[in-house]
Predict the structure.
Amino acid sequence: MQYTTNQTEEFMVKEGKDVAQLFSPFFEETTCIHQENTYVAQNKKYTSKIQIFHKNKQKLYTFSHFLPKNCSFLQEKSFIKAYHKAHLYWALKKFFHTSFAWGALTGIHPTMVVRKLIQQGFSKQKIVHQLHSVYGVSHQKIKMLFQIIKTQGALQVPANHVHLYIHIPFCPSKCMYCSFLAEELCTQKHALQKYILYIKQDILNALWVIKQQNLTLQSIYFGGGTPTTLSAEQLEDVLSILPNNIPEFTVEAGRPDTITKEKLQVLKNYGVTRICINPQTMHNQTLQTIGRWHTAEQIKEAKLLAQPFGFEINTDLIAGLPNETEAMFASTLQQVLALKPHQITVHTLSVKKGSPLEKLQPTPTHTKRMVTRAYAYLTKHHYKPYYMYKQKNMFDHQENIGYTKTKPCLFNVHTMEECASVIACGAGAISKRVALETGKIERLAQPKDITLYQNRFEELMQKRAEFFNKKL
Ligand SMILES: C[S@@+](CC[C@H](N)C(=O)[O-])C[C@H]1O[C@@H](n2cnc3c(N)ncnc32)[C@H](O)[C@@H]1O
Ligand code: SF4
């Protein structure tokens, strides 16, 4: 497949490629798309001509659009971008007789598109029209977007608020599908002990930056990897340097094979309010296939063990796992619901190029129905969707959705909606500064490689302090 455009602006090429990518499974090797855009600034008229060359047929589509009155330069640019994508989407949809639930909205955060339109003063009716008739988004996804925005409520985060993220890149075993930074613990026990020395110093430096900059810590998120691969003593060693009066403090206990009563007690003692116990699936056969060394029974046991401690509990699931049918996914949903977690996050399997999962030839066509079923089933049982995001290479171009029966997890909402700053510790952790007034967002990443992170530690600490000190 080849996509070209006469528009030299970087964003045009990127946006067009994203849409063309959606349809790539239907392309022959010889398929070429050429999009020609002209924009006459004087009369604010935008025209786009698309030619699709295919083995047996060649088609030409033309389209023109006048931009709305009083459109500022910034708006013009985003309008042109949106129409450029939409036009290509509709042309390819017609050509290949196929459509996608998110239409031309290929970005990671569709809720942010809706929030922008709300801020610009568009009525709900106009936004629905824009999403459905211009971008081609399905009515079910539009309904969900509005539900999410309603559950999230206003997102006016004070400028001096910050979240603290701590990354532990170790797990008991590496799951076959996982693209997160995680080392298998069985071969890395010594590396973990060394990592703890660095992460503690990293946290102390972050707390110092928070104090120096007069920031208010809104939440702590101890994620990974699997932070509960640390022993109870190691957990205590790290948690004891953190403040323990933070209203929201999450620990990804993820794998039930790492959870013990002793560790849960340490989490409770140090102010943790929310933990994740993640089945992904309740089918032991699949758990074995994907390399998770635990069973569905262990999930139930871990939930029972955690219950008396009074944490909020989240459970992660994945739709589209290898060899799973829709009925199997439905049974996972049912079993997880019976455990009565406060939150359930339904991910759609995303398969990275070169991942061993590619060889297993999973069943992508069921995934859309699984995700739709999860939405219907969970909302029927009073779980509200409260955050969502999309990733590259997701089966059926679906999304990840967090559902909650209680209050939303602020860290998840604020990071996905990009409306609050994050100070991040550990290898691969990414700090973020957000200036809501200007819409400016900047990021600073620490190296993913653990050795590099440790070797460059002093320099990284200095860079992060400067990052939070500079004017945004
Ligand atoms: C950062 S991971 C860590 C969670 C924890 N270590 C565990 O596995 O239970 C968070 C979640 O992302 C999801 N995830 C990871 N890789 C994925 C993939 N390739 N496709 C879809 N979901 C994925 C899983 O549901 C996982 O629980
Ligand atoms: S336990 Fe979690 S972070 Fe670790 S490899 Fe599995 S999915 Fe990835």
Q: What stands out?
A: Residues 73-96 form the longest helix (24 residues). Residues 171, 177-180, 224-226, 252, 254-255, 278, 280, 316, 318, 347, 349-350 surround S-adenosylmethionine (ligand 1) (CB under 6 Å).
